[in-house]
Design a protein that fits this description.
It is a single chain. The protein is an all-alpha fold. It is built from nine helices and two strands, in the order H-E-H-H-H-E-H-H-H-H-H. It has a two-stranded antiparallel sheet. Helix 7 packs across helix 9 and helix 8 crosses helix 9. The longest helix has 20 residues. The C terminus is likely disordered.
Length: 200
Amino acid sequence: MGGWAIKEASLEVGYWRTFQSYSLTQAALLCVGRDPRKTSFDQLMKQYGRSSEADELLYFLEDLYEALANGLGLDPKDGETTVNAQALLNWVNIKTVKIDPRFRRMLKVYHPVSSGPTVPPQGLKAREDKRLHGSTFTAHARILGAVAIAKYRLDGVSSIGRVAREMVNDGNLNGLGFDAKVVRGLLRSALDPLAEEKPF
């Protein structure tokens, strides 16, 4: 799946240990043990809709990307923004975020920083999936779907991840906190009845 599970696309420590910084997309891929030279973040995101198992992995990668951007005070819309290796390790230590063990060891050996106090993870902590029921859920899904199609260019299953990120980011900028996982579920439900009428 675009290099997600291919052994040849795994992190090559000998190459990446010399870098003092990475782009945001590179950092996200390195955190899951993938080599950005062999795996494209954008290509992975185009794999949405292939299978529910693959979608869950992509959702995890997107959540990691968002948590990393928010945790380091970066713009999640700019995948090329710079992530300092020491700042990344410090954030991982403070938030107790689980990342690829080889990448973590590489950071600790080649970019050591003093660890801050251990606190519960925030960006990647397991969140309860609070679902709406019945007609209320359907109404919410249709409303959100209409807004997403008109304002965020939702045009099929493959764009759900991008649209959800943009909606959550805009919500955060306006002081509204909501879960990307819930938004993705609502958007998927909104598209289900449309799929029979309009091929995406």
